Amino acid sequence: MKNTTLVLAFLSLLALGCSKDSGYSSAPSTGSGIDSGQGGGGQGTGISKTEIITKISAISEASSCSKFSFPGHGKANKGYLNGMALSYAKSFCGIGRSDSVGIMTAKPTGNSNIDALVWYADQLNNIGLKADRTPAETLRALFTLGIGLGMRESEGKYCEGWDASATNRTIASEAEAGPFQTSYNALGVSPVLGKIYQRYLADQSGCELPVFSKDVSCRDRGNLGTGEGVRFQILNKSCPGMATEIAMTTLRVLRKHYGPINRHEATVAAPCADMLSQVQEYVTSNAGNICGKL
User: Fold this and answer.
1) What Cα–Cα distance (Å) separates residue 254 from each residue in 95, 117, 152, 262?
2) N or C: the chain end with fewer CB closer than 10 Å?
3) Does residue 69 sit in helix, strand or coil?
């Protein structure tokens, strides 16, 4: 009960951190996400989602992040970086909304027991990211950390199954799955997480599996347990768009869910922050058209 009360209080602070009265504002926003704005640039109104994904993937694959070697895990596969770049673009388009992006982009409140951005503040500062400066920079810091977490947990493999070495986990709700090794029991910390899960159960068009699966080979470890926890494991391994949205949100409200975060084992890489900046520049150049298609 004490932990639940603490988390609920923290979520209230996150909401305050995003309020208009807080003075915390940044990226172009109409209050319902920048996707409703009118873009400039020369891409034209006929740009397709396929063309947008191709461009974002090209930015990712040409970036110095694609050449960065994560300690102990090597270079990220193309699918993982392309998928994370695409997920970042989608979230950037949502700045100003009060859903999961509202939690992702809320100004850090100073609670390092809950918020991974506070826990990693020194490491982020060392690569020039101030997570409490603007919502856009908060989001960029979060995804930079998220990229490192996924490399540490699964080497960026969207299809990673439950950790068979974790013998203390014997029920479905505790079985980790997906690129960030999130388990079903994390959803209980915030109603927003449960809503993300239900949204993707109903509509999997935003899973972006073809993007995340590029140059990735999978080894099926099966699933642990029975019931809803198994259903979550299956979807978390086959719907990386959902896995990313849930993990990035969880990092802000339950950082202790991830062992590598607790031990500061996830690498925050400056080249990956730079890659996300390039994606942001592309989206901003024609936000009205790009965000409307994502």
Assistant:
1) 21, 11, 18, 11
2) N
3) strand
